[in-house]
Write a structure and sequence with these properties.
This protein has 688 residues and is α+β, with helices and mostly antiparallel strands. It has a 17-stranded mixed β-sheet that branches. Strands 8, 9, 10, 16, 17, 18, 19, 20, 21, 27, 30 and 31 form a twelve-stranded antiparallel β-sheet that branches. The longest helix is centred in the C-terminal third of the chain and has 19 residues.
């Protein structure tokens, strides 16, 4: 008896390209494995024999092979329309079974992975008849009716691990192999293939140019369904060293090219799309992240100054707290949306350069040429003085939306009082209470387009961690000033929480007084120091003992619309520690929960009585060299298409409640924090 094989079923309706896909997959896998291939069409007993064929396949083929035994089965003679010769299928390391019903319910317990191949009805019929026209055409409707009846009772597509849209252009096998790496049941058997695919080579090109970022993003990625712009829109010139470091680089990328992928995670289920294939797995998000990120797969090019060397970019939503001690709450938006960028442009605002990065692939040269042209076209003419990054491009904003608040003024103040009661009872020290403003954008294409809104937002309120994310029907426009967590490739860690806010004033004397008031505020310092202590504890779980240090405490930084109180906590990651788990240990940001974190999150769930979604989560990147840089998702507008031309805008706002808070001051604080985004939209804070 041989060891039990890894069994992969390739199912789909007739004409979806299952046979070609199976043959091409088998050819690739045979480079490193012994592979058996079984076609269900060899065993169906006639044109009305789908149900009987599935039963024969499971009992006489699949069951013995699952045990590592030879399968002895009787073929069907399609010319004589009767049983044909006896055949034997021997077990191998990998068994591919393909055909309608390969993943039927009776077969499911015996399979390690299910691939569902699909294509349009017109393409399926054309392919099937082109292959077996004379034989098949008289029976197409009869067989299609059997397929429909079977699938009505047995929803194989819903159970499939991998879905692939087979365009018959030769890309499906590579897309499927890429998707299979995410399935634990088969990934270990594909180590040679995955090792070959992980032998990545980074191509880099440096251009002395200062392209206008918005123009460059629109040129390269404006038509991409999924794209990310991590936009340091605050001009680093003249800033303090710490602020200048945060504002130095911008990253522009999409999920195109040979290696591009996108991922969405919701409530314990992760869906990764690679090319035309989509794979779905169950399990915690941070466990999935640990499997795809954290090891140094690529090194930075010589003289390249940025920590990002391609990798995953996007957001982690607040509801991932279910994996870090919080309650399980379901959000309307995905708990995480990321792309894997196999190509990107990195702008160095300090050096005035653009770096083109791409993984070596057949399409790399074409992309480098297109990116080079786009950078040149977006750069100012020779001798022109470049504008500050946030001032170079603007666009007419959409018509002003009318926002409504989830909590009335009286309701929010009552929740502040309830939070103070929890503090008085000793259940928490600080509660970062939030609410949300929502609006339906005006009718018309511009009213639903988040792009011009983001351009206006970054023009009015530049920030070191601004970002524009587009994931199909979901867009995120953020001007966050706050770093959540940075992990350098060499293991250095840094958190920079913000607690304490005052508005800016156009009159210099008043503005200086507001800054001084914040700097001397005992209440704001107490809020900030409590979060510093919380983050010191979060970082210590994975840090080298003794390496956690507070290098800045309660410093004041000024932005376009607010003054902020910022602290910096540094640490060093213990060698060999899982980097995804180090991120999880700090998530969500303590500045958005309060302290102690776990008990306060439970209080917040009760007081807020609604999910936060993207807001209060994190936005940034996970690089292939093991580095990560994540901002807190604040000052963030989320645009969600609802279908039929409808959409929803949402803006989360909040503030820290302590024993010394007053409900009126807390309410004024959320109005101050909302001002930067609302003013960019021409909107006002809702009354009442």
């Amino acid at each position: 008896m041989s060891p039990a094989p890894v069994i992969i079923a390739i199912d789909g309706r007739s004409g979806s390209g299952k046979t070609t896909l199976a043959i091409e997959l088998a050819a690739r896998l045979r480079e490193h494995h012994k592979v058996s291939l079984f076609h269900l069409e060899d065993i169906y007993p006639g044109w009305n024999g789908l149900a009987a064929g599935i039963e024969r396949y499971v009992t006489t083929v699949l069951s013995p092979l699952r045990r590592g035994e030879n399968a002895e089965w009787v073929s069907w003679d399609w010319e004589r329309h009767y049983d044909g010769e006896a055949r034997t299928t021997r077990p191998a390391e990998i068994l591919l079974v393909e055909g309608v019903g390969a993943a039927a319910a009776a077969a499911a317990p015996l399979l390690d992975a299910v691939i569902w191949a699909d294509s349009s009805d017109a393409d399926r019929r054309a392919r099937a008849l082109a292959r077996d026209g004379d034989t098949y055409e008289p029976f197409w409707d009869q067989w299609a009716a059997q397929e429909a009846e079977w699938l009505a009772a047995d929803d194989v597509p819903a159970r499939a691990d991998v879905h692939v849209l087979n365009l018959a252009d030769g890309t499906a096998p590579d897309d499927v192999l890429q998707a299979l790496q995410y399935l634990p049941a088969v990934a270990s058997s594909l180590l040679p293939e995955l090792a070959a695919r992980r032998g990545l080579q980074l191509l880099a090109e440096r251009i002395q140019a200062q392209p206008e970022p918005a123009q460059l993003f629109a040129a390269l990625f404006g038509g991409s369904t999924n794209a990310v712009w991590l936009d340091s829109s605050l001009d680093p010139a003249g800033l303090a060293p710490e602020a200048a470091e945060r504002s130095r680089f911008s990253i522009l990328a999409d999920d195109g090219g040979r290696f591009g992928q996108s991922v969405r995670h919701s409530s314990g289920r992760t869906r990764v799309s690679t090319g035309q294939a989509t794979v779905t797995t169950d399990g915690p998000f941070f466990r999935w992240l640990d499997g795809v990120w954290g090891r140094r797969a690529l090194r930075a090019p010589e003289a390249y100054p940025c920590e990002f060397t391609l990798g995953w970019l996007g957001y982690l939503g607040y509801e991932l707290k279910r994996e870090t001690g919080g309650n399980d709450v379901t959000a309307a938006t995905p708990d995480a949306c990321l792309i894997f960028a196999g190509r990107a442009v990195v702008l160095d605002h300090a050096e005035g350069t653009a770096w083109l990065l791409t993984l070596d692939a057949p399409d790399a040269g074409d992309w480098l040429g297109a990116a080079r042209t786009a950078v040149t076209a977006a750069a100012p003419a020779p001798g022109a003085v470049p504008a500050a990054p946030a001032q170079r491009v603007s666009a007419p904003p959409p018509a002003a939306p009318r926002f409504a608040a989830r909590d009335t003024e009286a309701g929010y103040k009552a929740k502040v009082t309830e939070a103070q009661h929890e503090i008085a009872e000793g259940n928490t020290y600080e509660v970062c209470l939030t609410t949300v403003l929502t609006a339906a954008p005006p009718a018309g294409p511009q009213g639903m387009d988040p792009w011009p809104a983001y351009l206006e937002l970054r023009r009015r309120n530049p920030a070191p961690f601004a970002s524009f994310l587009r994931f199909g029907e979901l867009a995120v426009a953020s001007t966050s000033p706050e770093r959540f967590l940075q992990i350098a490739a060499d293991g250095r860690m840094r958190a920079e929480p913000i607690k304490g806010t005052r508005r800016r004033d156009p009159e210099p004397g008043t503005d200086a007084a507001l800054r001084e008031e914040l700097e001397s505020s005992a209440k704001d310092r107490a809020e900030n120091i409590m979060i510093v202590d919380l983050l010191r504890n979060d970082l210590s779980h994975f840090a080298v003992p003794g390496s956690v240090a507070v290098s800045r405490l309660c410093a004041i930084e000024s932005y376009a619309t607010v003054h902020q109180m910022v602290s910096t906590i540094d640490a060093r990651l213990r060698p060999g520690m899982p980097r995804a788990e180090a991120v999880a240990a700090c998530f969500p940001a303590g500045s958005m929960t309060g302290a102690p974190k776990v008990s306060t999150m439970a209080i917040l769930d009760r007081l807020e009585a609604a999910p936060r979604g993207v807001y209060s989560g994190a936005i940034g990147y996970f690089s292939l060299n093991g580095a990560a840089d994540l901002a807190v998702a604040i000052r963030t507008l989320v645009v969600r298409a609802l279908g039929a031309g409808a959409a929803e805008l949402s803006l989360g706002v909040g503030g820290a409640v302590t024993a010394d808070s007053t409900p009126q001051e807390e309410y004024e604080e959320i109005r101050t924090k909302a001002f930067g985004v609302l003013s960019a939209l021409g909107a006002e804070f809702p009354q009442g």
